[in-house]
Amino acid sequence: MLKSYYSKLREILKYLISLFLFINFLYANSSTLLLEDGFSFNENFEISYLKDSSNELNIEEVSNSNDFQKHSNKFSLGYLKDTVWIKVDLKNISSKEDFILSINEHFYEKANIYYFDKSKNLWKVLENGVFTPIKQRDIQTSKLAFDFKIQQNSSQTIFIELKAKYPYFGNISVYSKDYFFTSNLLNIDSFFILQFGILFIIIIFNLFLWLSLKEKVYIYYVGYTFFALVYLINISGILIYFDLQHYMYKLHFSVSLCIIFLALFSIEYFEANKYFKASVFVIKILILLLFLFAFMMVAVSYSPWNNFMNHIITLILITLIISSIKIYRKGQYFLKYYIFAISIYFSSVIIFILFLTGILEYNYFYRYAYLYFLSLEIIVFALILSNRYNIIKNEQIKIQNELISLQVNQNRLLENEVKKKTLKLTKLV
Q1: Are 147 and 138 in contact (CB under 8 A)?
Q2: Is 20 exposed, middle or buried (0-12, 13-18, 19+ CB in 10 A)?
Q3: Is residue 168 classed exposed, middle or buried when 0-12, 13-18 and 19+ CB atoms within 10 A define those classes?
Q4: Are 276 and 326 contacting, i.e. CB atoms less than 8 angstroms apart?
Q5: How far apart are CA 61 and CA 65, in angstroms?
Q6: Contacts of 113 (CB under 8 A, 6+ apart)
Q7: What are 249-268's pLDDT values in tens digits?
Q8: Cα separation of 175 and 184, whole Å?
Q9: Which helix (H) or strand (E) holds 63?
C-alpha cells in the first residue's frame, strides 16, 4: 500500500515537473523574437529594460547586468532622468539576413544600438538620435530606425540605449528591409500631412470670414488653428527632414499660444463677459501664468517649466468647460456643439497625460487619440463659426431688406405728399 502511494506521488511529481519545464520552454520562446521565412514585421513580442540612474553604465556592464525587467515591446515608462537600456533577443531562422529595427518615435536625443560582433570579438555601436541629421542616418526617416544584419540560423541580442527629455515611450518593431520601405509610404507621417492640409484650409477660410465680418472671434480662431498647426508640425518629426529639429524644444511654446487663443476665442464666442464675468477673470489670470511659464521654458530650460505649463493648460480647459456649461444652462443652447467638442478633446488630453506619466500602457489609441480629437475639435469649431457667419449674413440681409422696404415706403409717402401738394396748387391756379 505504501509502495503504491509512493509510485502515485512520483507520477504526480513527474507530471508537475514536465508541466513546469513545458511552461518554461514556452516562456523562453516568447522572450526571443523568431525571424521566419515570410516574415514582414513583428510588433508583439517581449523585451527587457534597465533603468540606469547613474547615466554612466557602459555596454559591458549593461550586458552583464541581472537587473533587466520584462516588458512588452510597446512601453510607456513615464518621465525619467535615467538612461534606459532595452534588450531585444532575436533568432533568425529565415532565408534573409537584412532587417530593420525601429523605435517608431523621433524625439530621443540618444538612441544607440549595440550588438556583439563574434567574428571580431567586440561590441559594435550604431549611433542615432533626434539631432542626427537625416543625411547621416542609415535609415533616412524621422522615426529612429536601424539597419542590421543577422546571419541565418543564428541568434543575436541587441541593446538599445535611450536618453530623452520627453517621457520614455515607444513601440519597438522589427521589419524585413523590403517591407519597411513599402509600409513607410503610408505611415503616421501621412496622417500628419493630411492634418496639416486640413488646418491650412481652415486657417485660410476663417481669415476670409474675419476680413468679411471683422469680428474678433474669427481672428482668435485663426490664431488657435495656426499655433495648433505649428505644434503638430513640431511633434510630428517632420522638422527632421529639413534639419530644423534643434528648434523642437523652443517650438513647444506653440502649445501655450494655441491654448491662449482657444481661451480668447471661447470667451468671445459664448460672450462670457456678459454671462459669467468671474470665469473671464480666472481665465485671464491663468493665461498670464501660462504665458509666463511658457516664456521660462523657452528662455531658461525645458524642464520643469513644461510640466507647470501643462498644469495651467489643464486648468484652463476645465474652466472653459465649466463656464460653457453654466452659460448653456442660462439658455444659450447654441453652446452644445462647443461643449461636445471641447469635452471629448479634454478627455483625450487627460488620457494622453496618463499615458505620458506611465500610468497607462502603450497602445495606439492612448498614443494618438488626442491628435484625432484635436482635429475633430478644430473642424467642429470651424463648422460652428461657418454657421455663425451664415446667421450674421442672413441678419445683415434681413436688416438691409428692411431698410430698403422702409426707404421704399418713405419714397411712396413722399410721392403721395408731392402729388397732394401739386393737386392743391393746381386747384388754386
Answers
A1: yes
A2: exposed
A3: buried
A4: yes
A5: 6
A6: 101, 125, 126, 128, 146, 148, 158, 159, 160, 161
A7: 999 999 999 999 999 999 99
A8: 11
A9: helix 59-63
- Residue 206: exposed, middle, or buried by beta-carbon count in 10 A (0-12, 13-18, 19+)? buried
- Look-up: residue for cell 542626427? 132
Q: Where does the pLDDT of residue 383 fall: very low under 50, low under 70, confident under 90, or very high at 90 and above?
A: confident
Cα separation, 287 vs 130, whole angstroms: 31
String of DSSP letters for 293-309 = HHHHHHHT-STTHHHHH
Beta bridge partners of 48: 70, 87
- The pLDDT of 15-33, averaged and rounded, is 49
Distances (CA, A) of 217 to 270, 329, 389, 406: 10, 22, 11, 32
Identify the DSSP state of 357: T
Confidence category of residue 334, pLDDT binned at 50, 70, 90? confident
Cα-Cα-Cα-Cα torsion 393, 397, 400, 401, nearest 10 degrees, comes to -170
Distance in angstroms between the alpha carbons of the first and the last residue of the chain: 152
- For the beta carbon of residue 295, count every other beta carbon within 10 angstroms: 14
* Residue 237 near residue 108, CB atoms below 8 Å: no
Residue position matching grid coordinates 474652466: 319
**What SS3 class is residue 128?**
coil
CA 226, chain centre distance (Å): 16
Q: Give percent of the chain above pLDDT 90.
A: 50
Q: Which three cell numbers stand for residue 100?
A: 530593420
Output b/e per residue, 74-85; b: 16+ Cβ within 10 A: bbbbebbeebbb
CA 374, CA 381: separation in Å to the nearest integer? 11
Tally the residues of the chain.
429
Contacts of 402 (CB under 8 A, 6+ apart): none
Q: Is 110 helix (H, G, I), strand (E, B) or coil?
A: strand
- Spatial neighbors of 259 by CB under 8 A, at least 6 apart, are 290, 313, 316, 317
Helical packing angle, 364-428 and 336-356, nearest 10°: 160
Measured CA distances, 425 to 337, 411, 412, 422, 428 (Å): 66, 21, 20, 5, 5
